[in-house]
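Sample pair:
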Amino acid sequence: MNAYPRSLREVINLLKNMPGLGEKSATRIAFHLLRMDEKDVRNFCDTLLQMKRLISPCKKCFHLADGDLCSICSDPNRNSSLVCVVETTSDLISIEAAGIFNGKYHVLGGVINPMENVTSNDIRIRELLDRVDEEEVKEVVIATNPTPEGEATAHYLFELLKDKPIQVTRIALGIPMGGDIKYADPVTIKFALEGRKRISGD
């Protein structure tokens, strides 16, 4: 690293702090930036700054937005009566990538985790209850992850929602496509069996 000019070393060190980037990847990106025209580098930096300034949580679902509402909440073609509750924006994006869900979302911003002093007051449960009470929600799909904390949060949400005039469902979790049952853990097999569906002859 001492063979590089100081300014180049500083860029490499900054890039190394990003998730998934090691020394070699950071160095490749730094050299790519060095080869770019100054105009393109300036545009790149301006775009990053604009993203940082403009993006904030959606006022309704807490997904990322560059205005009051995210693109999903503002889409009139989405089913507003169906709300999928997820832990993070990353989970939301993964579900969207599947292309089969046409409802809306609610991002909790985490899960209940007593070991890390995260209580129900630290995540967006009250906001979810307000949405159910104020909007025409017919079904809430709980899509927290199959971890002990995710399951505890799902159970807590079910207890809060079970007496409301809506349907509360939990995503079925089980053996992934291409997976091998003999390598699956007991919890995964449990969810796979509990989430089973009748095979149609059609």
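The beta strands are 56-57, 64-65, 79-86, 103-107, 139-142, 167-170.
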